Amino acid sequence: MTYTGTSRLADFVRGLGALMVFGFLLVGSPVAMYKMNGSPIPDRIPSGEEIRLVLMRQDTDHSVFLATLWLIGWGAWCVFVLSVCADVISFLVGRETPLLPRPVRPLQQLTRELITTAALAFSVAASLATSASAATDVHAATGVHAAADPQPNAPGHLSSGHATPEPEPTASEWTPLLANEAPPGPETGGHPWQTHTVKRGDTLWNLARRIYGSGAQYPKIFKASQGIKQPHGAPALTDPDVLHPGQRVRLPRLGSPKSASSPPRTTPHAARPSAPPKHGKTSDARTPPTLRSSSVETRPSEVPAPVVAPPASPAPSTPHHQGDHQDDHHSPQAISLSSGSWIGIGLAAALSVAVAATRLHRRRRRPINTDSNSWGRATEPPIPDSVRKARQAHMSTYADRDVRLPSDPELVREDLEAAEPNHLVIGVRDGHAVAVPLAGLSLGLSGDGAHAAARAITTELLAKAHRYRAEIVIPRADAQALFPGEDITDLAAALDACTITPSLPEATSHLEAELLHRGRLLAMTDLPDVPSLRAADPAEPLPTVMLIASVPEQDAGAVHVLSTLGHRHNIGVLVLGAWPSGTSVELSGDATVTNAHGPDAGRFTGSRLFQLTTDDAAGMLQTIRTATGTEPGVLTPPPNTNPEPDPEPHVVPAVVPPPRPSGETGGPPARLDVLGHVCLRTPDGPINTGLRRSARSLLAYLSLHPDGVARDTATAELWPDLNPKSAVTRFNSAVTNIRSVLRATTGGQTMYIIHSDGRYRVDPGAVGVDLWALTSAVADARQATDDAARIKALTLAVDLYTGEFASGISGAWVEAHREHLRRAIGNACTDLAQLLQENDPQQALAALEQAITHDPYAEPLYQHIMRLQARLNRPDAVQRTYRFLAVRLEEIDAEPSDESRKLANFPAQTLKRT
């Protein structure tokens, strides 16, 4: 949005007009009425006879009519003054302004609109002012507006400071963990509970999980909240399955009389809680409870993640990494990277979604390859090392809980359906999350670790900000300071959620214009704040806007206005440097808080904030950009002091089973399926019990190495987070488990897993592997000397591919080969269609449709089908294929290309191309 000098002048004039009208109504109108007809207070009380005579006589001089208007004017002025006083008093006591009765409510609304327009417009003057007196005027205007705001900043939010100290808050928009608070006392008003205002995405289940460590305690909140007085317009809480933004709920404190039965926080051996209420399906608090990284193992988290997962027990912790922060590195939210970055699970989950979206977009654009000698070779740029490690840590949370891993399309779909973020976890204190609300945020970061912490916050917001959920506004100089070496303007052009302005005044102008726009929308809809407006009309693009900038003293007044008005309008401010107008936090080199002052200093004291190095941030920004479907042009892969090569898919050689001993018939006694879910089978059926997860991973890995692999090589790829001794123990246990399960099931006494010359491999005489049959068919297709033999081999290969490789197993090695196989089979289907389309076009279409079932986002496959359908003179089929493509691409927030639209609109032209 361009904010010109003309619009500034118009807003200033509008604000001046509003102030003049307000001043006339408050002071000028009573003075004028007094001059015209004197005081409205009579010097004596008239008798009844005098009143009767005045009313009964004919009003020839209109004196009675004028006196009536005069009295009505004084009455309206009194109501006007009452409305102003009510707003001021409500602001001073920190409560919501009560609504006056309906006959006089329009006058109250007029009062608020006049004050709002004057305060918002005069903030324009503050951004242009360079003197301290201008900043003082803006502060005064802000105070007037805040008094009239129907929902002033909640005490639990980060907000700007005030001249007079405020009492300790008792209600919050983001309630801290009550289990860790002191028992109620005089300072908390003696209440055994706190009040929480429901935000979009809140459910009783995730509130209970966040507060008490178990979602099963949601009935406690529901029982305590029944009958609570709700704000005007918010319905009463009568159903635990239904929550509305703006409702209030009571959160009982642990240890209080009303919550004496509250259980302790989840322990490693705690039973799984009962099922959540139905309202859980609307929650955006999707929490992978456990998390493991290269140096830490984590425990139950309260951070939103992209896929719903039930609570689970934490894993035992591992030893500290050298140099780790002793208190925080065993926290539920922390992931330590070898480069020195320390990030939260929220960022790891967002990067995991970005990797999934990147893969889907690359598959969408991948051209058809009919050269069988290069089938499946990786040609895309590698995933940056920092992103790959963060994704592995996030995906390991599902494996640790023995929960099915979400596929890439599932991750992306869940993320597209997620609500806009209303808070952000930016650090850890005493093992618990330090969460800040985004709306009304007024936080300054200073010290050696300030830029690293701000870089982590900015990167996570950018990763979560697409589809109008959040927007970052940052001056170019500050963007280059946070992300040196990057063409940040080029990045912002690819990300709709990032606005780079030439300087801070342009940034504040952008936000002031957004404030005016949102204020008008709230006035038209008669809603109290932007979250309520988004809940009422989800299609309205009103993202949470965050200003990230260093603020010189002459611009502090305008930025202070933005932070003060931000709570209602979903705007926050993160200042790079000390911030006396809000909460200021000083950080050491490892982002540990050494000093904090301001209204919310207690939230940060003793905490450590997440931090991100410039190299890791560059790789993450690159992935965030590619997740939008655009490959980086200027951005280059970040340098790495200890680079790790991207795993290359292992090309599985064709395996010929050894001949069976004389007298034996049939195939091997056992079969291993790795295409789809990893499963062992016997002639009697699948083996459903007894096989451990580590054994399934080892079987899938060994299927890629029919010639065998050294144990150290296997453990390094399968379990990179374990120390070598623990990894060897797990490997040996997995081999023992495989042999014992197969022997018990088949009754045989063979080894099944052969150890020879220091290498382990699957015995091809005892175990048949579906992957080997597939690779043999592909090898036959490459070596075929005529079309008939090639068609036969390709048909067999396509039929043998029954699912993606080792679904449900995570790891760089398995994901690399999974993509390798998917590309190879897609190309095999296309090659088969090319061979069949002249003599049997119907079979060619069937081959291409089968390729789409394995790779439903590959747009070139749809284009090939549309050309073939057009050649068969089937325009209706062409349109159906195009519509199916559009539906598929919509799942990953993409649209068909111009080439696809041309094929759908002009099918006759495809005959010429074909």
What do these coordinates show?
- The structure is a single chain.
- This protein is 46% helix and 10% strand.
- The chain is α/β, with parallel strands linked by helices and 914 residues long.
- Among the domains are: 5-148, no CATH class; 171-183 and 192-265, Roll (Membrane-bound Lytic Murein Transglycosylase D, Chain A), CATH 3.10.350; 670-821, Arc Repressor Mutant, subunit A.
- Strands 10-9-11-12-8-13-14 form a 7-stranded mixed β-sheet, with helices on both faces. Strands 18-17-16-22 form a 4-stranded mixed β-sheet. The chain has a 3-stranded mixed β-sheet with strand order 1-2-3.
- β13 (583-587) and β14 (593-597) form a beta hairpin.
- α3 (63-93) packs across α5 (132-148) and α5 (132-148) runs parallel beside α16.
- The longest helix is centred in the first third of the chain and has 33 residues, at 5-37.
- The protein is elongated, with a radius of gyration of 34 Å.
- The two termini are 46 Å apart.
- Mean pLDDT is 75; it is low at 127-190, 255-332 and 633-648.
- It comes from Actinomadura violacea.
